[in-house]
Amino acid sequence: MTISRGQNGGSILDRYLANLSVEVEPFALCMLQSGWRLTLPGPPCAMLHFVVQGEGWLSCPDGTRSALGPNWLIVIPTGRVHSLDTRENWDHELKIDCTPTGPPVHHIVAGDPPAEMVVGCGTLNVRYGEAIGLFDHLADVLIVDLSNLPEIPGLFQSLIQEQSREEPGTPVLQGAIMTQLLVHMLRAVSEQSDSNLAWLNALDDPRLARVIDRLMENPFAAHTVESLAESVNMSRSAFASHFQDAFSRSPMNLVNHVRLERAARMLSSSPWPVERIGKHCGYSSRSHFSNAFKRHTGLSPAEFRGQQSHG
């Protein structure tokens, strides 16, 4: 896709980035000796890889294989098992059963030093309007070559150093550094005609962008497919079909998703009782809210709140 320009001269990408929130989970430095394969589990959310040093391949169980080079950024979809290879025909394999948790930076070593390829790996929580995941429904691995940008290695090194410090303000600085990396990635992706980032593509359509703004500003209003379609002067059927094609979900599915994400944040930060939060978020009863929330998170509101308070 190409970047559209708004009436005020700003781009859709500028608008998108102004509403982006980024949280960085623990990183690991994966170091592979020549002839080794490192197989990683399917991440619980999107995983980012950054090639710090060397060249190699990213391989998936379906047989797809992509060449990698220094300063390349790779985003792995949720649940996608994958491998990093230093050779097309590898001799040894190290399998990791679960992604690392908790700081500081972990080191995963496949083979004896010196390493031929070094890759930084970590999971990302990147959301638009604090509710919609940038990498939700990412179907394929996303690979972006950033080797033409001299500032990229320094940004990633700063991210690793900040995570190693464990000082006050570290999460904020990590998010700011990662946002810079994502800006460079999104600039590159926005120039690709075959981008598979649904949200970036969809927000290039002014009608869909207006609908998303409407939901972000007031997700608890009595939205219906008809009211959303009317707000952008489309028929109900045309709007529903267009929305489904763009976001791989129905309009009301997204409405409920945004409401429940906001509810989760309120359960973490507000002293309000569960029933009051449910009503505020548009649910007619505590049981209706609890059932919807459990389908969304796997936990009841009370269980979620208890987990957050002990986290």
What does this structure look like?
The protein is an alpha+beta fold and 311 residues long. The chain folds into two domains: 179 residues, Jelly Rolls, CATH 2.60.120.10; 105 residues, Homeodomain-like (Arc Repressor Mutant, subunit A, Orthogonal Bundle), CATH 1.10.10. Helix content is 40%, strand content 22%. It contains eleven helices and twelve strands. The strands form two sheets. Strands 1, 3, 6, 9, 10, 11 and 12 form a seven-stranded mixed beta sheet that branches. Strand 10 and strand 11 form a beta hairpin. The radius of gyration is 21 Å and the shape is globular. It starts with 11 loop residues before the first helix and ends with a helix. The N terminus is likely disordered.
CATH C-level class of the largest domain is Mainly Beta
Mean pLDDT: 84
Q: CATH superfamily membership of the largest domain, which one?
A: Jelly Rolls
Poorly predicted sequence stretches spanning 5 or more consecutive residues: 1-10
CATH topology of the largest domain: Jelly Rolls
Gyration radius over CA: 21 Å
How would a crystallographer describe the biggest sheet? 7 strands, mixed
| Amount of helix | 40-55%
Shape: globular
Tally of separate helices: 11
Report the oligomer: single chain
Quickly give the CATH architecture of the largest domain. Sandwich
Query: What is the helix/strand order?
Result: HEEEEEEEEEEEEHHHHHHHHHH
Number of strands: 12
Q: Indicate the structural class.
A: alpha+beta
Through-space gap between termini: 41 Å
Relative strand content:
15-25%
Number of domains: 2
